[in-house]
Amino acid sequence: MNIVYLIGNGFDRNLNLKTGYKSFYKYxxxxxxxxxxxxxxxxxxxxxxxxxxxxxxxxxxxxxKVTSDEDAKSIHNDLLxxxxxxxxxxxxRFNPQNSYRSDxxxxxxxxxxxxxxxxxxxxxxxxxxxxxxxxxxIITFNYTETIEKLLNYKGESATxxxxxxxxxxxxxxxxxxxxxxxxxGRMALGLDNESQIHNPxxxxxxxxxxxxxxxxxxxxxxxxxxxxxxxWINVANFIVIFGxxxxxxxxxxxxxxxxxxxxxxxxxxxxxxxxxxxxNNNAPxxxxxxxxxxxxxxxxxxxxxxxNEDVRGRIYISCCKTMFKYGVIEKTKD
Length: 334
Hints:
This protein is an alpha/beta fold.
């Protein structure tokens, strides 16, 4: 069976890396520039910080104020250059102990420990039963290599557990948006499609789309990152979303997951970190929150019928705050 993870910035922040946009803005505002378009952008961010909580989505909206291709290109180049330097410095701070490797593998292959007992039993007797080979694929949306460091991953498949002929193995890790390491490059920053650029003139400009549309940017490198990851999702039996806000700038992936849920019996486990966990006497309130999360999630996955009980029954929600949290770096104020 195939397990596919989609991992976002919440993962790195769980490790106490200051990789949130809010932290980056503090650094970015301190970087000098003589370019008027960059000065205007920084002024906009500084005066409306809450509106820039999701930089990529906000950038698409901000482009309606940009009047030329050259200014749009200058903005993207400047943001990308400084974001790469900033994230690279954060990535360099992360040096985990080798002992975390086994704990991380255990959680990757059994991510359901925070679910209710009856849900765990259903999944361990079904899609996550032990008498089968499990192949794990990780799609990371992060520019860091924290996952590789935790797993001591060198680019080759690795066996995590083996019980006779039943093997659990990591097949591959894909950085869908590239790396902060300048030697590896291909660091994509932007939107999912032209409709998210709120400027009809710029959205029809090839030079702007080359930079701001992540699928287009990736394709310019002549590799098959998007196609490969879509193939993984299209054959996944168990999909896990961790540390991601399901924003529009990655709509391609949410649509792919929605299609997989509609056309197969695949399971989705979504970690929703803003929620509260099940404890004491709050089961009714907890279930109401789970229902509400599913109501909001299904349209984001491109599933219009939020009353589809078959799909809803195969979506599991975890509000666990301790998953993949190893406290490797001392926490600092974000």
